[in-house]
Design a protein that fits this description.
alpha/beta; 2-enoyl-CoA Hydratase, Chain A, domain 1; six-stranded mixed sheet; 9 strands; peroxisome; delta(3,5)-delta(2,4)-dienoyl-CoA isomerase activity; fatty acid metabolism
């Protein structure tokens, strides 16, 4: 697994959780705040994991005790993308350049959602702004009891543009609450996040949250990869389409996928009361 060497992320493969990858944001001295190189590394990692046949599920965490991520590294951004130093371009041309940057950053975060493998995020400590963008692009969110969330962008003069305003309403199903936290940038904690359905489980500590996420990922990885990857694909498609469109797509998808040997292997393991094993995908 030496191919997984990155500057701002640790990618490991826990021995006690077969087929699980653990991705850790690794800039704890800066509260794991993101600047451009980190966005690009994140995209590269999830694109690589998506096609790796030895990986069936992924856990994403943040290094250190203080923060999952404090979001955007505002200092780096103010010296780069958000700088107004180029006075030679008119507003239209500046807008075109900015739009390209935003699309690029959106694409980086969307690699989490587009990853073929299920992604579980274990959040702790400070989890602001970009932390929400990242977590709503994942499939499952768990957290520690000390977590402090906020959709922080209005506090720095922006409307969140990397995915929160698009995905968060579909994650929690409470549009009024989404508007409240997005328009006020007020913090909210683990219990409120669980109550509205933003996270599915709350653990006492970061260590317990990471352990719980790895166990959940291990359970997913023990299932048929054909079934798991198909389930993620069909759920994401159905979220954004009508029931009839979702059913039609499921028909097309499963007309190929039900021909897998995994179905008979799973049925036989149940009859024979043994653990099923499945080939790599």
């Amino acid at each position: 697994m030496s191919a997984y060497t990155y500057q701002y992320f640790n990618v490991t493969f826990p021995q006690d959780h077969q087929y699980v990858a653990h991705v850790e944001i690794n800039r704890p001295d800066k509260l794991n705040a993101f600047f451009e190189a980190m966005w690009l590394e994140l995209a590269a990692i999830f694109n690589q994991l998506s096609s790796d046949p030895s990986v069936r599920s992924i856990v994403l965490t943040g290094a250190g005790d203080r923060a999952f991520t404090a979001g955007l590294d505002v200092k780096a951004a103010s010296e780069g993308l958000l700088s107004d130093s180029d006075t030679t371009l008119d507003p239209a041309r500046k807008s075109v350049i900015m739009r390209r940057h935003i699309i690029s950053f959106q694409s980086c975060i969307s690699t989490i959602e587009k990853c073929e493998k299920p992604v579980i995020v274990a959040l702790h400590g400070i989890a602001l702004g970009l932390a929400i963008d990242i977590s709503v692009a994942a499939d499952v969110r768990v957290c520690s009891s000390d977590v402090r969330f906020a959709v922080k962008e209005v506090d720095i003069g922006l409307a969140a543009d990397i995915g929160t305003l698009t995905r968060l309403p579909k994650v929690v199903g409470n549009f009024g609450w989404v508007k409240e936290v997005s328009l006020t940038a007020r913090p909210f904690g683990a219990q409120e996040a669980e109550r509205v359905g933003f996270v599915s489980r709350v653990y006492g500590t970061k260590g317990e949250a990471v352990k719980g996420a790895l166990e959940l990922a291990g359970l997913m990885a023990s299932k048929s990869p054909v079934a798991v990857q198909g389930t993620k694909e069909l759920l994401n498609y159905s979220r954004d389409h009508t029931v009839e469109e979702g059913l039609r797509y499921t028909t097309v998808w499963n007309s190929a996928m039900v021909q897998t040997k995994d179905v008979s292997d799973a049925l036989l393991s149940g009859i024979q009361k043994r653990k099923a094993t499945f080939a790599k995908l």
